[in-house]
Amino acid sequence: MTDPQHPYSDAVVANGLVFVSGSLPLAADGSVVPGGRAAMDAAMAQLEQRMATVGVGLADVVKLTYFVTDMALRDFANEQYIELWNEPRPARTVVGVAELPRGAVVEIDAVARVR
After folding, report:
1. pLDDT of residue 22 exceeding 70
2. 52-90 confidence digits (pLDDT tens)
3. Among the listed residues 71, 77, 75, 64, the one whose alpha carbon sits nearest the alpha carbon of residue 97
4. Cα separation of 73 and 5, whole Å?
5. Over the Cα atoms of the chain, what is R_g?
6. Contact of 53 with 10, CB cutoff 8 Å
7. Residue 6 in this model has a pLDDT that exceeds 70
8. Where in 1-115 does DSSP place strands (E)?
9. Following CA atoms 101, 39, 68, 18 in sequence, which dihedral angle do they give, to the nearest 10 degrees?
């Protein structure tokens, strides 16, 4: 049965691509990691875990979307993006939003290719 608080798939494979649902910055105990680079890293770790369930990793990412509640967080997104990917990097979008689930400051989703 689907969890009513999580009524979607973490990752779906279709036509040689993996579509990964938005990942929040969650600590191991399920609490939300607040603000800054720590939140970016926690959200990316969550994204990696979701990708691993279908056998892909960061090297397979072709498109990322960062949703942030403060556009000043774009600097942290840029740092992370440069550290994790070499040229040519995946396509990327940063979208400013008014609010995210559980009061998070960032949510990251991705599209990856199946190798």
Report:
1. yes
2. 999 999 999 999 999 999 999 999 999 999 999 999 999
3. 71
4. 27
5. 14
6. yes
7. no
8. 11-14, 17-23, 61-68, 91-96, 106-113
9. -80
Contact between 109 and 23 under an 8 Å Cβ cutoff? The reply is: yes
Pair of tokens at residue 95: 């979208």
Mean pLDDT of 106-114: 98
Q: Take residue 18 and report the two structure tokens written for it.
A: 């993996």
pLDDT average, residue stretch 5-34: 92
Extract the tokens encoding 97: 């939003």
**pLDDT value of position 1:** 35
CA distances from 86 to 8, 49, 70, 83 (A): 31, 21, 26, 8
Closest C-alpha among 66, 64, 65, 77 to residue 36: 77
Q: Which residue has the tokens 């000043």?
A: 72
